[in-house]
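Co-fold these.
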Amino acid sequence: MSSQSLQKVKKNVSDNLHWIPLIILVVWTVFPFIWALSASFKTQTEVYDTPPSLIPNSLYLENYARVFTYPDFWTFMLNSVILAITSTILAVVTSVIAGYGFARYAFKFRHVLLMIILIPRIIPRASLIVPLFTGIATLGLLDTRIALIITYTATAVPLATWVLAGFFQAIPRALEEAASIDGARPWQVVWYVIIPISLPAILTVSIFSLRESWNEFPFVLAFTTSSDMRTLPYQLFMLRESMGMQDWPMMLAFTLVTIAPLLILYLIFEKRVVNGVVSGAVK
Amino acid sequence: MQGEQQLGMKQHIRKKRTLPKRVIPYLLIFPAILFVLGVLGYAVISGTLLSFFRYDLSYVDKPFVWFDNYIYLFNNENFQNALVRSLIFVLSSVVLGLILAMSFALSLYKVKTMKNTFKGLALIPYLVSGIATAIMFRFMFSSDVGLVNMVLASFGFEPILFLSSPNWAVFVTVLANVWHIVPFSILILLAGLQSIDNELFQAAEVDGANKYYVLTKIILPLIAPMMGIAMIWLSFASFNMFDVVLPLTGGGPNRATEFMAVYMYNVAFTELKYSLGSTVMVFILLFNVGTSMLYLKIFKASE
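Predicted complex below.
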Protein backbone atom coordinates (compact mmCIF):
# COMPACT_ATOMS: atom_id res chain seq x y z
CA MET A 1 0.00 0.00 0.00
CA SER A 2 1.37 3.41 -0.91
CA SER A 3 1.74 5.99 1.82
CA GLN A 4 -0.81 8.18 0.06
CA SER A 5 -3.58 5.64 0.27
CA LEU A 6 -2.61 4.91 3.86
CA GLN A 7 -3.08 8.56 4.63
CA LYS A 8 -6.43 8.45 2.90
CA VAL A 9 -7.50 5.55 5.09
CA LYS A 10 -6.25 7.41 8.13
CA LYS A 11 -8.23 10.49 7.21
CA ASN A 12 -11.26 8.38 6.52
CA VAL A 13 -11.00 6.76 9.92
CA SER A 14 -10.52 10.02 11.75
CA ASP A 15 -13.40 11.61 9.85
CA ASN A 16 -15.72 8.90 11.05
CA LEU A 17 -14.47 8.62 14.61
CA HIS A 18 -17.57 10.38 15.94
CA TRP A 19 -19.64 7.35 15.02
CA ILE A 20 -18.20 5.41 17.96
CA PRO A 21 -19.67 7.63 20.70
CA LEU A 22 -22.78 8.05 18.57
CA ILE A 23 -23.38 4.30 18.43
CA ILE A 24 -22.72 4.09 22.18
CA LEU A 25 -25.24 6.89 22.64
CA VAL A 26 -27.91 5.07 20.64
CA VAL A 27 -27.34 1.78 22.44
CA TRP A 28 -27.13 3.45 25.85
CA THR A 29 -30.35 5.38 25.26
CA VAL A 30 -32.44 2.79 23.50
CA PHE A 31 -31.29 -0.48 25.00
CA PRO A 32 -33.19 -0.27 28.32
CA PHE A 33 -36.42 0.30 26.33
CA ILE A 34 -35.75 -2.47 23.83
CA TRP A 35 -34.91 -4.91 26.58
CA ALA A 36 -38.03 -3.97 28.54
CA LEU A 37 -40.13 -4.13 25.38
CA SER A 38 -38.82 -7.57 24.55
CA ALA A 39 -39.51 -8.86 28.07
CA SER A 40 -43.01 -7.39 28.05
CA PHE A 41 -43.91 -9.86 25.28
CA LYS A 42 -42.50 -12.86 27.13
CA THR A 43 -44.20 -15.24 29.49
CA GLN A 44 -43.28 -15.25 33.15
CA THR A 45 -41.08 -18.31 32.75
CA GLU A 46 -39.58 -17.18 29.47
CA VAL A 47 -37.75 -14.26 31.11
CA TYR A 48 -35.75 -16.80 33.11
CA ASP A 49 -34.46 -18.52 29.97
CA THR A 50 -30.69 -18.63 29.57
CA PRO A 51 -29.24 -17.48 27.33
CA PRO A 52 -31.79 -14.67 27.11
CA SER A 53 -33.08 -13.83 23.67
CA LEU A 54 -34.02 -10.40 22.45
CA ILE A 55 -36.81 -11.77 20.27
CA PRO A 56 -39.64 -13.35 22.31
CA ASN A 57 -40.74 -16.89 21.35
CA SER A 58 -44.13 -15.61 20.34
CA LEU A 59 -45.99 -12.35 20.36
CA TYR A 60 -47.45 -12.94 23.82
CA LEU A 61 -49.92 -10.11 24.48
CA GLU A 62 -51.28 -11.39 27.77
CA ASN A 63 -49.10 -8.99 29.83
CA TYR A 64 -50.62 -5.96 28.18
CA ALA A 65 -54.09 -7.43 28.52
CA ARG A 66 -53.40 -7.84 32.24
CA VAL A 67 -52.20 -4.25 32.52
CA PHE A 68 -55.34 -2.87 30.88
CA THR A 69 -57.61 -5.04 33.01
CA TYR A 70 -55.65 -4.44 36.21
CA PRO A 71 -58.05 -3.33 38.99
CA ASP A 72 -58.56 0.43 38.73
CA PHE A 73 -56.02 0.82 35.91
CA TRP A 74 -58.32 3.20 34.06
CA THR A 75 -58.87 5.21 37.23
CA PHE A 76 -55.11 5.73 37.51
CA MET A 77 -54.90 6.60 33.83
CA LEU A 78 -57.77 9.07 34.13
CA ASN A 79 -56.19 10.66 37.22
CA SER A 80 -52.88 11.03 35.42
CA VAL A 81 -54.56 12.60 32.40
CA ILE A 82 -56.71 14.97 34.47
CA LEU A 83 -53.78 16.13 36.61
CA ALA A 84 -51.39 16.54 33.69
CA ILE A 85 -53.84 18.44 31.48
CA THR A 86 -55.42 20.73 34.07
CA SER A 87 -52.14 21.68 35.71
CA THR A 88 -50.49 22.27 32.33
CA ILE A 89 -53.32 24.49 31.09
CA LEU A 90 -53.34 26.42 34.36
CA ALA A 91 -49.57 26.81 34.36
CA VAL A 92 -49.34 27.85 30.71
CA VAL A 93 -52.19 30.37 30.91
CA THR A 94 -50.79 31.85 34.12
CA SER A 95 -47.31 32.03 32.64
CA VAL A 96 -48.37 33.54 29.31
CA ILE A 97 -50.16 36.33 31.18
CA ALA A 98 -47.34 36.88 33.64
CA GLY A 99 -44.66 36.56 30.97
CA TYR A 100 -46.40 39.24 28.92
CA GLY A 101 -46.63 41.47 31.98
CA PHE A 102 -42.92 41.15 32.66
CA ALA A 103 -41.92 41.51 29.02
CA ARG A 104 -43.97 44.56 28.12
CA TYR A 105 -44.49 46.70 31.20
CA ALA A 106 -42.19 48.72 33.37
CA PHE A 107 -43.46 48.87 36.91
CA LYS A 108 -42.36 49.28 40.48
CA PHE A 109 -40.81 46.19 42.09
CA ARG A 110 -40.65 44.53 38.66
CA HIS A 111 -37.21 43.20 39.43
CA VAL A 112 -38.12 41.94 42.89
CA LEU A 113 -41.28 40.28 41.62
CA LEU A 114 -39.38 38.65 38.77
CA MET A 115 -36.90 37.28 41.30
CA ILE A 116 -39.76 35.91 43.40
CA ILE A 117 -40.92 33.98 40.35
CA LEU A 118 -37.46 32.83 39.29
CA ILE A 119 -35.77 31.87 42.53
CA PRO A 120 -38.02 28.85 43.13
CA ARG A 121 -36.44 27.23 40.08
CA ILE A 122 -33.62 26.16 42.37
CA ILE A 123 -36.05 24.44 44.73
CA PRO A 124 -36.47 20.79 43.83
CA ARG A 125 -39.99 19.50 44.13
CA ALA A 126 -39.15 16.56 46.37
CA SER A 127 -37.59 18.78 49.03
CA LEU A 128 -40.88 20.55 49.70
CA ILE A 129 -42.97 17.51 50.54
CA VAL A 130 -42.71 17.86 54.32
CA PRO A 131 -44.00 21.43 54.81
CA LEU A 132 -46.49 21.06 51.95
CA PHE A 133 -47.80 17.88 53.53
CA THR A 134 -48.44 19.63 56.88
CA GLY A 135 -49.94 22.65 55.08
CA ILE A 136 -52.25 20.57 52.92
CA ALA A 137 -53.25 18.52 55.96
CA THR A 138 -54.19 21.72 57.83
CA LEU A 139 -56.37 22.79 54.92
CA GLY A 140 -58.00 19.36 54.90
CA LEU A 141 -56.96 18.82 51.30
CA LEU A 142 -54.98 15.60 51.73
CA ASP A 143 -55.98 12.96 49.21
CA THR A 144 -57.63 15.41 46.80
CA ARG A 145 -56.89 16.27 43.19
CA ILE A 146 -57.04 19.99 44.00
CA ALA A 147 -53.95 19.75 46.20
CA LEU A 148 -52.01 18.04 43.43
CA ILE A 149 -53.21 20.37 40.66
CA ILE A 150 -52.26 23.47 42.65
CA THR A 151 -48.84 22.16 43.62
CA TYR A 152 -48.07 20.92 40.09
CA THR A 153 -49.07 24.26 38.61
CA ALA A 154 -46.98 26.17 41.13
CA THR A 155 -43.87 24.12 40.37
CA ALA A 156 -44.33 24.58 36.61
CA VAL A 157 -44.92 28.36 36.62
CA PRO A 158 -41.36 29.62 37.32
CA LEU A 159 -39.65 28.01 34.32
CA ALA A 160 -42.61 28.63 32.01
CA THR A 161 -42.81 32.32 32.93
CA TRP A 162 -39.09 32.73 32.43
CA VAL A 163 -39.01 31.09 28.99
CA LEU A 164 -42.14 32.90 27.79
CA ALA A 165 -41.09 36.33 29.09
CA GLY A 166 -37.81 35.93 27.23
CA PHE A 167 -39.62 34.94 24.07
CA PHE A 168 -42.13 37.80 24.27
CA GLN A 169 -39.35 40.28 24.82
CA ALA A 170 -37.76 39.21 21.53
CA ILE A 171 -40.95 39.98 19.58
CA PRO A 172 -40.62 43.44 18.00
CA ARG A 173 -42.94 45.97 19.60
CA ALA A 174 -43.69 47.39 16.14
CA LEU A 175 -45.99 44.43 15.48
CA GLU A 176 -48.17 45.26 18.46
CA GLU A 177 -48.09 48.96 17.74
CA ALA A 178 -49.27 48.33 14.18
CA ALA A 179 -52.13 46.26 15.51
CA SER A 180 -53.18 48.84 18.09
CA ILE A 181 -53.07 51.63 15.50
CA ASP A 182 -55.48 49.51 13.51
CA GLY A 183 -57.75 49.75 16.53
CA ALA A 184 -57.11 46.42 18.23
CA ARG A 185 -57.65 46.33 21.97
CA PRO A 186 -54.79 45.12 24.18
CA TRP A 187 -56.28 41.66 24.68
CA GLN A 188 -56.83 41.40 20.94
CA VAL A 189 -53.20 42.27 20.37
CA VAL A 190 -52.14 39.49 22.68
CA TRP A 191 -54.58 36.96 21.28
CA TYR A 192 -54.14 37.65 17.56
CA VAL A 193 -50.52 38.84 17.41
CA ILE A 194 -48.48 37.61 20.36
CA ILE A 195 -49.93 34.13 20.90
CA PRO A 196 -49.72 32.96 17.27
CA ILE A 197 -46.10 34.09 16.97
CA SER A 198 -45.21 32.45 20.27
CA LEU A 199 -46.73 29.06 19.55
CA PRO A 200 -43.34 27.26 19.46
CA ALA A 201 -42.41 28.66 22.87
CA ILE A 202 -45.84 27.86 24.27
CA LEU A 203 -45.57 24.33 22.91
CA THR A 204 -42.16 23.84 24.50
CA VAL A 205 -43.36 25.14 27.84
CA SER A 206 -46.42 22.90 27.65
CA ILE A 207 -44.27 19.83 27.02
CA PHE A 208 -42.04 20.78 29.96
CA SER A 209 -45.05 21.07 32.21
CA LEU A 210 -46.75 17.91 30.89
CA ARG A 211 -43.55 15.96 31.43
CA GLU A 212 -43.35 17.15 35.03
CA SER A 213 -46.96 16.47 35.92
CA TRP A 214 -47.26 13.17 34.03
CA ASN A 215 -44.15 11.76 35.70
CA GLU A 216 -44.59 13.42 39.09
CA PHE A 217 -44.03 11.07 41.98
CA PRO A 218 -43.04 12.53 45.40
CA PHE A 219 -46.14 14.73 45.79
CA VAL A 220 -48.61 12.05 44.84
CA LEU A 221 -46.77 9.66 47.15
CA ALA A 222 -46.92 12.02 50.11
CA PHE A 223 -50.28 13.75 49.63
CA THR A 224 -52.61 10.92 48.61
CA THR A 225 -53.64 7.79 50.40
CA SER A 226 -56.61 6.24 48.61
CA SER A 227 -56.31 4.24 45.41
CA ASP A 228 -58.92 6.55 43.82
CA MET A 229 -56.34 9.32 43.73
CA ARG A 230 -53.41 7.31 42.45
CA THR A 231 -51.65 8.14 39.23
CA LEU A 232 -49.80 5.78 36.91
CA PRO A 233 -46.29 6.43 38.29
CA TYR A 234 -47.54 5.95 41.85
CA GLN A 235 -49.28 2.72 40.92
CA LEU A 236 -46.10 1.54 39.22
CA PHE A 237 -44.28 2.16 42.48
CA MET A 238 -46.93 0.26 44.45
CA LEU A 239 -46.73 -2.59 41.96
CA ARG A 240 -43.01 -2.87 42.54
CA GLU A 241 -43.54 -2.85 46.30
CA SER A 242 -46.38 -5.34 46.39
CA MET A 243 -44.87 -8.04 44.21
CA GLY A 244 -43.09 -10.62 46.26
CA MET A 245 -42.41 -13.00 43.41
CA GLN A 246 -41.80 -10.41 40.79
CA ASP A 247 -43.95 -10.62 37.72
CA TRP A 248 -41.44 -8.86 35.50
CA PRO A 249 -43.19 -9.10 32.11
CA MET A 250 -46.37 -7.49 33.41
CA MET A 251 -44.48 -4.83 35.36
CA LEU A 252 -42.43 -3.91 32.31
CA ALA A 253 -45.56 -3.80 30.17
CA PHE A 254 -47.04 -1.42 32.76
CA THR A 255 -43.87 0.67 32.69
CA LEU A 256 -43.96 1.01 28.92
CA VAL A 257 -47.67 1.88 28.96
CA THR A 258 -46.92 4.80 31.31
CA ILE A 259 -44.08 6.01 29.07
CA ALA A 260 -45.94 5.69 25.76
CA PRO A 261 -48.33 8.70 25.78
CA LEU A 262 -45.64 11.28 26.47
CA LEU A 263 -43.25 9.62 24.05
CA ILE A 264 -45.83 9.70 21.25
CA LEU A 265 -46.59 13.35 21.95
CA TYR A 266 -42.89 14.10 21.91
CA LEU A 267 -42.28 12.27 18.64
CA ILE A 268 -45.09 14.27 17.00
CA PHE A 269 -43.66 17.62 18.02
CA GLU A 270 -40.05 16.53 18.21
CA LYS A 271 -38.41 19.01 15.88
CA ARG A 272 -39.90 22.09 17.45
CA VAL A 273 -39.51 20.83 20.98
CA VAL A 274 -35.86 19.85 20.69
CA ASN A 275 -34.90 23.29 19.45
CA GLY A 276 -37.14 24.97 22.01
CA VAL A 277 -35.64 22.92 24.79
CA VAL A 278 -32.11 23.69 23.64
CA SER A 279 -32.73 27.41 23.86
CA GLY A 280 -34.79 27.03 27.03
CA ALA A 281 -32.21 24.81 28.68
CA VAL A 282 -29.44 27.33 28.67
CA LYS A 283 -31.45 30.02 30.43
CA MET B 1 -62.05 79.89 37.75
CA GLN B 2 -63.74 78.00 35.00
CA GLY B 3 -60.38 77.28 33.45
CA GLU B 4 -59.13 75.92 36.73
CA GLN B 5 -62.12 73.69 37.05
CA GLN B 6 -61.63 72.39 33.55
CA LEU B 7 -58.01 71.79 34.27
CA GLY B 8 -58.98 69.96 37.40
CA MET B 9 -61.43 67.84 35.47
CA LYS B 10 -58.88 67.12 32.82
CA GLN B 11 -56.45 66.02 35.46
CA HIS B 12 -59.14 63.96 37.02
CA ILE B 13 -59.89 62.23 33.74
CA ARG B 14 -56.24 61.64 33.04
CA LYS B 15 -55.83 60.23 36.51
CA LYS B 16 -58.75 57.92 36.00
CA ARG B 17 -57.26 56.69 32.75
CA THR B 18 -53.73 56.25 33.97
CA LEU B 19 -54.54 54.59 37.25
CA PRO B 20 -55.81 51.32 35.79
CA LYS B 21 -52.94 51.29 33.34
CA ARG B 22 -50.49 51.36 36.21
CA VAL B 23 -52.34 48.48 37.80
CA ILE B 24 -52.39 46.32 34.65
CA PRO B 25 -48.93 44.74 35.00
CA TYR B 26 -49.63 43.84 38.63
CA LEU B 27 -52.90 42.24 37.61
CA LEU B 28 -51.12 40.30 34.88
CA ILE B 29 -48.48 38.84 37.14
CA PHE B 30 -50.77 38.38 40.14
CA PRO B 31 -51.86 34.77 39.42
CA ALA B 32 -48.28 33.63 38.87
CA ILE B 33 -47.11 35.34 42.05
CA LEU B 34 -50.03 33.82 43.92
CA PHE B 35 -49.13 30.29 42.83
CA VAL B 36 -45.43 30.71 43.48
CA LEU B 37 -45.71 32.46 46.83
CA GLY B 38 -48.78 30.55 47.95
CA VAL B 39 -47.26 27.14 47.38
CA LEU B 40 -43.49 27.35 47.07
CA GLY B 41 -43.00 30.41 49.24
CA TYR B 42 -45.30 28.96 51.85
CA ALA B 43 -43.43 25.66 51.83
CA VAL B 44 -40.03 27.24 52.24
CA ILE B 45 -41.11 29.61 55.02
CA SER B 46 -43.24 27.17 56.97
CA GLY B 47 -40.63 24.45 56.54
CA THR B 48 -37.92 26.75 57.86
CA LEU B 49 -40.10 27.76 60.81
CA LEU B 50 -40.98 24.14 61.48
CA SER B 51 -37.29 23.28 61.74
CA PHE B 52 -37.13 25.38 64.94
CA PHE B 53 -39.97 23.48 66.59
CA ARG B 54 -40.31 19.95 67.70
CA TYR B 55 -43.17 18.45 65.75
CA ASP B 56 -43.71 14.74 65.45
CA LEU B 57 -46.36 12.22 66.28
CA SER B 58 -44.90 11.43 69.71
CA TYR B 59 -45.47 15.01 70.85
CA VAL B 60 -48.87 16.52 71.41
CA ASP B 61 -47.74 20.14 71.63
CA LYS B 62 -45.27 21.82 69.35
CA PRO B 63 -42.53 23.32 71.54
CA PHE B 64 -40.05 25.85 70.21
CA VAL B 65 -36.62 24.24 70.46
CA TRP B 66 -34.20 26.75 68.87
CA PHE B 67 -31.49 24.86 67.00
CA ASP B 68 -32.07 21.50 68.66
CA ASN B 69 -33.12 19.86 65.38
CA TYR B 70 -29.99 21.09 63.64
CA ILE B 71 -27.73 19.93 66.48
CA TYR B 72 -29.49 16.59 66.61
CA LEU B 73 -29.16 16.19 62.86
CA PHE B 74 -25.47 16.95 62.63
CA ASN B 75 -24.75 14.48 65.42
CA ASN B 76 -27.01 11.84 63.94
CA GLU B 77 -25.12 9.07 62.23
CA ASN B 78 -27.88 8.40 59.72
CA PHE B 79 -27.67 12.02 58.59
CA GLN B 80 -23.89 11.82 58.38
CA ASN B 81 -24.29 8.60 56.41
CA ALA B 82 -26.75 10.30 54.04
CA LEU B 83 -24.39 13.22 53.56
CA VAL B 84 -21.35 11.08 52.80
CA ARG B 85 -23.38 8.78 50.56
CA SER B 86 -24.87 11.74 48.72
CA LEU B 87 -21.45 13.22 48.07
CA ILE B 88 -20.17 9.90 46.69
CA PHE B 89 -23.31 9.60 44.57
CA VAL B 90 -23.05 13.18 43.28
CA LEU B 91 -19.35 12.92 42.53
CA SER B 92 -19.62 9.63 40.61
CA SER B 93 -22.73 10.83 38.74
CA VAL B 94 -21.03 14.08 37.74
CA VAL B 95 -17.84 12.38 36.53
CA LEU B 96 -19.61 9.66 34.57
CA GLY B 97 -22.36 12.03 33.39
CA LEU B 98 -19.96 14.66 32.14
CA ILE B 99 -17.80 12.17 30.25
CA LEU B 100 -20.85 10.68 28.54
CA ALA B 101 -22.56 14.01 27.89
CA MET B 102 -19.40 15.51 26.46
CA SER B 103 -18.63 12.65 24.07
CA PHE B 104 -22.29 12.40 23.04
CA ALA B 105 -22.56 16.15 22.48
CA LEU B 106 -19.35 16.23 20.43
CA SER B 107 -20.50 13.35 18.25
CA LEU B 108 -23.95 14.90 17.79
CA TYR B 109 -22.28 18.15 16.83
CA LYS B 110 -20.05 16.43 14.32
CA VAL B 111 -22.54 14.08 12.69
CA LYS B 112 -24.18 15.19 9.44
CA THR B 113 -26.51 12.33 8.55
CA MET B 114 -29.79 12.20 10.47
CA LYS B 115 -28.54 14.82 12.92
CA ASN B 116 -32.02 15.72 14.14
CA THR B 117 -33.05 12.10 14.57
CA PHE B 118 -30.05 11.43 16.78
CA LYS B 119 -30.63 14.62 18.71
CA GLY B 120 -34.27 13.73 19.27
CA LEU B 121 -33.30 10.25 20.34
CA ALA B 122 -30.75 11.51 22.85
CA LEU B 123 -33.44 13.49 24.64
CA ILE B 124 -35.83 10.58 25.17
CA PRO B 125 -34.70 9.49 28.68
CA TYR B 126 -35.50 13.04 29.80
CA LEU B 127 -39.19 12.27 29.20
CA VAL B 128 -39.21 9.01 31.13
CA SER B 129 -40.29 9.12 34.75
CA GLY B 130 -37.82 8.28 37.50
CA ILE B 131 -39.89 5.25 38.46
CA ALA B 132 -39.94 3.86 34.94
CA THR B 133 -36.18 4.37 34.77
CA ALA B 134 -35.75 2.61 38.10
CA ILE B 135 -37.82 -0.39 37.03
CA MET B 136 -36.01 -0.84 33.73
CA PHE B 137 -32.66 -0.75 35.53
CA ARG B 138 -33.88 -3.02 38.31
CA PHE B 139 -34.84 -5.53 35.67
CA MET B 140 -31.47 -5.37 33.91
CA PHE B 141 -29.56 -5.74 37.18
CA SER B 142 -31.81 -8.17 39.02
CA SER B 143 -30.01 -11.18 40.45
CA ASP B 144 -32.06 -13.91 38.76
CA VAL B 145 -33.59 -12.56 35.53
CA GLY B 146 -31.18 -9.66 35.03
CA LEU B 147 -29.44 -9.46 31.69
CA VAL B 148 -26.17 -8.35 33.23
CA ASN B 149 -25.99 -11.43 35.41
CA MET B 150 -26.97 -13.70 32.53
CA VAL B 151 -24.15 -12.26 30.45
CA LEU B 152 -21.75 -12.66 33.37
CA ALA B 153 -22.91 -16.25 33.82
CA SER B 154 -22.28 -17.03 30.16
CA PHE B 155 -18.67 -16.03 30.73
CA GLY B 156 -18.57 -18.33 33.72
CA PHE B 157 -18.77 -15.65 36.41
CA GLU B 158 -20.74 -16.01 39.61
CA PRO B 159 -23.91 -13.89 39.65
CA ILE B 160 -23.56 -10.57 41.47
CA LEU B 161 -26.34 -9.54 43.83
CA PHE B 162 -26.28 -5.98 42.53
CA LEU B 163 -29.13 -4.59 44.58
CA SER B 164 -28.36 -6.35 47.85
CA SER B 165 -24.68 -5.52 48.03
CA PRO B 166 -24.07 -1.96 49.28
CA ASN B 167 -21.33 -0.99 46.84
CA TRP B 168 -22.98 -2.51 43.77
CA ALA B 169 -26.29 -0.89 44.72
CA VAL B 170 -24.60 2.52 44.66
CA PHE B 171 -23.12 1.63 41.28
CA VAL B 172 -26.49 0.69 39.78
CA THR B 173 -28.14 3.80 41.25
CA VAL B 174 -25.45 6.01 39.72
CA LEU B 175 -25.93 4.33 36.36
CA ALA B 176 -29.72 4.74 36.38
CA ASN B 177 -29.41 8.31 37.61
CA VAL B 178 -26.90 9.19 34.90
CA TRP B 179 -29.12 7.60 32.25
CA HIS B 180 -31.96 9.77 33.50
CA ILE B 181 -30.12 13.11 33.76
CA VAL B 182 -27.53 13.01 30.96
CA PRO B 183 -29.87 14.09 28.12
CA PHE B 184 -30.37 17.53 29.58
CA SER B 185 -26.64 18.11 29.96
CA ILE B 186 -26.11 16.97 26.36
CA LEU B 187 -28.44 19.80 25.37
CA ILE B 188 -26.53 22.33 27.44
CA LEU B 189 -23.22 21.28 25.88
CA LEU B 190 -24.68 21.12 22.39
CA ALA B 191 -25.95 24.67 22.74
CA GLY B 192 -22.42 25.68 23.71
CA LEU B 193 -20.88 23.87 20.73
CA GLN B 194 -23.34 25.36 18.29
CA SER B 195 -22.46 28.86 19.42
CA ILE B 196 -18.81 28.43 18.37
CA ASP B 197 -17.95 30.51 15.33
CA ASN B 198 -17.36 28.27 12.30
CA GLU B 199 -14.63 30.57 11.02
CA LEU B 200 -12.41 29.37 13.85
CA PHE B 201 -12.49 25.84 12.48
CA GLN B 202 -11.83 27.04 8.95
CA ALA B 203 -8.88 29.10 10.15
CA ALA B 204 -7.53 26.09 12.04
CA GLU B 205 -7.91 23.93 8.95
CA VAL B 206 -6.04 26.47 6.83
CA ASP B 207 -3.26 26.43 9.41
CA GLY B 208 -3.19 22.65 9.11
CA ALA B 209 -4.18 21.99 12.71
CA ASN B 210 -5.02 18.38 13.50
CA LYS B 211 -8.18 17.16 15.22
CA TYR B 212 -6.59 16.75 18.60
CA TYR B 213 -5.37 20.33 18.45
CA VAL B 214 -8.80 21.63 17.40
CA LEU B 215 -10.45 19.74 20.25
CA THR B 216 -8.05 20.70 23.03
CA LYS B 217 -7.09 24.20 21.93
CA ILE B 218 -10.31 25.50 20.37
CA ILE B 219 -13.39 23.53 21.37
CA LEU B 220 -12.68 22.73 25.01
CA PRO B 221 -11.58 26.23 26.09
CA LEU B 222 -14.55 27.80 24.31
CA ILE B 223 -17.16 25.59 25.88
CA ALA B 224 -15.52 25.44 29.30
CA PRO B 225 -18.21 27.68 30.81
CA MET B 226 -20.95 25.46 29.38
CA MET B 227 -19.16 22.44 30.80
CA GLY B 228 -19.20 24.17 34.17
CA ILE B 229 -22.93 24.73 33.84
CA ALA B 230 -23.54 21.13 32.77
CA MET B 231 -21.47 19.95 35.72
CA ILE B 232 -23.37 22.04 38.19
CA TRP B 233 -26.66 20.97 36.68
CA LEU B 234 -25.63 17.32 37.01
CA SER B 235 -24.62 17.75 40.63
CA PHE B 236 -27.81 19.69 41.37
CA ALA B 237 -30.01 17.00 39.83
CA SER B 238 -28.09 14.20 41.53
CA PHE B 239 -28.09 15.76 44.97
CA ASN B 240 -31.86 16.15 44.79
CA MET B 241 -32.61 12.85 43.12
CA PHE B 242 -35.55 11.09 44.68
CA ASP B 243 -37.70 9.61 41.92
CA VAL B 244 -35.08 7.16 40.67
CA VAL B 245 -33.57 6.14 43.99
CA LEU B 246 -36.64 5.32 46.06
CA PRO B 247 -38.16 2.81 43.59
CA LEU B 248 -34.77 1.38 42.66
CA THR B 249 -33.34 0.58 46.07
CA GLY B 250 -35.59 2.24 48.65
CA GLY B 251 -32.40 3.62 50.19
CA GLY B 252 -31.00 0.20 50.93
CA PRO B 253 -29.35 -2.16 51.36
CA ASN B 254 -28.41 -1.10 54.86
CA ARG B 255 -28.83 2.64 54.02
CA ALA B 256 -26.12 2.38 51.35
CA THR B 257 -28.19 4.41 48.87
CA GLU B 258 -30.05 6.58 51.36
CA PHE B 259 -29.12 9.87 49.72
CA MET B 260 -30.30 13.21 51.10
CA ALA B 261 -33.77 13.42 49.51
CA VAL B 262 -34.58 9.81 50.33
CA TYR B 263 -33.27 10.31 53.86
CA MET B 264 -35.58 13.31 54.25
CA TYR B 265 -38.54 11.29 53.04
CA ASN B 266 -37.77 8.44 55.42
CA VAL B 267 -37.33 10.76 58.41
CA ALA B 268 -40.61 12.54 57.72
CA PHE B 269 -42.87 9.80 56.46
CA THR B 270 -41.45 6.57 57.89
CA GLU B 271 -40.25 7.84 61.26
CA LEU B 272 -42.97 10.54 61.18
CA LYS B 273 -40.61 13.24 62.48
CA TYR B 274 -41.91 16.20 60.50
CA SER B 275 -39.78 18.92 62.06
CA LEU B 276 -36.62 16.89 61.54
CA GLY B 277 -37.66 16.34 57.92
CA SER B 278 -38.08 20.11 57.55
CA THR B 279 -34.60 20.61 58.97
CA VAL B 280 -33.22 18.33 56.28
CA MET B 281 -35.21 20.38 53.75
CA VAL B 282 -33.49 23.58 54.94
CA PHE B 283 -30.15 21.83 54.56
CA ILE B 284 -31.00 20.69 51.00
CA LEU B 285 -32.17 24.19 50.05
CA LEU B 286 -28.98 25.78 51.41
CA PHE B 287 -26.94 23.31 49.38
CA ASN B 288 -28.94 24.24 46.29
CA VAL B 289 -28.50 27.96 46.90
CA GLY B 290 -24.76 27.33 47.10
CA THR B 291 -24.69 25.41 43.81
CA SER B 292 -26.84 28.04 42.12
CA MET B 293 -24.52 30.84 43.20
CA LEU B 294 -21.70 28.90 41.59
CA TYR B 295 -23.85 28.49 38.47
CA LEU B 296 -24.51 32.22 38.26
CA LYS B 297 -20.85 33.00 38.81
CA ILE B 298 -19.77 30.74 35.95
CA PHE B 299 -22.55 32.02 33.73
CA LYS B 300 -21.62 35.64 34.43
CA ALA B 301 -17.94 34.92 33.81
CA SER B 302 -18.81 33.39 30.45
CA GLU B 303 -20.67 36.47 29.27
